[in-house]
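HUMAN: Would you supply a protein with fold tokens?

ASSISTANT:
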Amino acid sequence: PGSTPWVSGRRYLAFNMVGSVVAVAQDSYNSIDITFHDKSLHRDVHFSDSFRFALAALTESGCLFATTTKALANDHALRSADDAESVLSFRAFASWSASADWMFKLPLKEHPRCIAASSHGAAAVTSLGMLRLFTCGGVQRHIESLPGRVVTCVARGDLLLVVLEALGSVKSNMGARRLEYEYVLMTMDGQTRVARGCCPVGPGAEIVWAGFSEEGHPATCDSKGMLRVLHRYWAASDACWVPVLDTRRLASERGNHETFWPVALSASQFIVATCKPKTRFPPFPAPILDELDVEVPLLHTDTSVGQQEAKLFAARLFGDQLSGEAERSGGDYPGGASGQSRDDLEQDKLLLRLIQLACKADKSQRAVDLAQMIKLDRSFDAAIKIAVYQKQTTLAERLMRIKDTKFGSEDDEYDDVHNSDDDQPAPAALNARRHRPPAATYGQKQNTATSKDSSDMDLSEDGADTVSTKPGGMAAAMLEDEGPELVVRPAKPPVTSKPFNPFGVAAPSTSMEIKRSDSFFKAADLHSESLSDVSSRAASPSKRQQREDGAAIAPRKQAKMSAFQYKKKAPIADDADDEA
């Protein structure tokens, strides 16, 4: 991928996001110019090529070159077919070793058809159907035979994608030959087949580019301008090709007939070189690269709802790729847990926008379907607030039930803890609440551990016991860390010579050993006062009853009430005298 035919004595051997490799034809040799997009990464390289390399694969660590025949390379400047040995050469850019370059000569009548390189090694597929794998240092790691005719191969990290022509290539009803493709995705050591299957293209189309996205998706682009990515390849049986952009439709919407030369792909953009109408290849010197926004070809993408759905689909697609690749390789999610939470939050934002549009359109079922895709608990709370704000009360209640089912509720967790078996330890906070230590400690013949635990307790003025937060106190003593799980031990009663009593007093052996203890009598007085307060509250009448009985009424108010009653009764007495 990235190579072009000769145009005015120049051709691109490779063109990607690292840089470009340009071959310039001379009389008896070629000159190679390696240009990097990031000048701070490496300096540009220029050297004379006496082998007349026809293939190149450019990476950040080095560049792999190969010679081949005129028929295989479509290069009129090469030798005639099969007259000499082909060469594989690797040129390292930066290495701790001074001699990191290596070169191999292939047997007669075996020529490279396509090559690939990455940070984990190099690969070459020959005209005899041989797949040869090498390490970065030039160690021959693996060799095998591939079925069918290989179209291209590309590598990224520890993955190698090989695209082949299927054996069942047929002709369509219109008479035109329709190509069928297959793909094989394997590791760079050749020991593991990650996925394999059919590689779809449009009717009458051919694959013109293959590569990997920035997130690790294997991707292809056909001559009809359809860009596809291989999704869920880490689960071989679930792997599928998903279309993510139709460049031809995008060009027609712009109102021009430009063509795009694929260069690279990311989660949100497709990096291309824009070519003039009726041309397929980029000009010289290298043009400025354009960025096309990824637009999944869903239905009704001309509406706001369709655009938001396309953005959501792309975000979920590439987000699943990051997590799946981390799971396959055994590594971490890019950016760690914070990076994954950030990506989940971005997806939830798109879902909340769609939920808001659904509530405005009074489509409750649509809002419920969108809410079930939410990943974060706080995002679900925002969805409920949106439903309440839009006066969708029934929807808000349903969303609350879905949230309780999906994320659970605190009440359910509390009930599960209390209804669990005795063999399962309860959480530390609940167990500490159950086994609260006694309010005070009395006596002088108690155990040392009991007095130590009791020293961390304070008795408040109203008789309530409070647990001290001192390190090593009773609440901390009840928790012991045994391995990965936290084991909770209940508080033990004080060790006494007689059965445990509520005051925690160590009973003396004889009555003569009873000594006065200020803490004992103080606690007893407080306990009796609290009991008297409770009984006085129960016996005291209510305010309304006091008013009805005339008790606890201010003297002035009582005088006014009596005067009012006297005036009210006076006219009745006068009428009685008149009648008499």
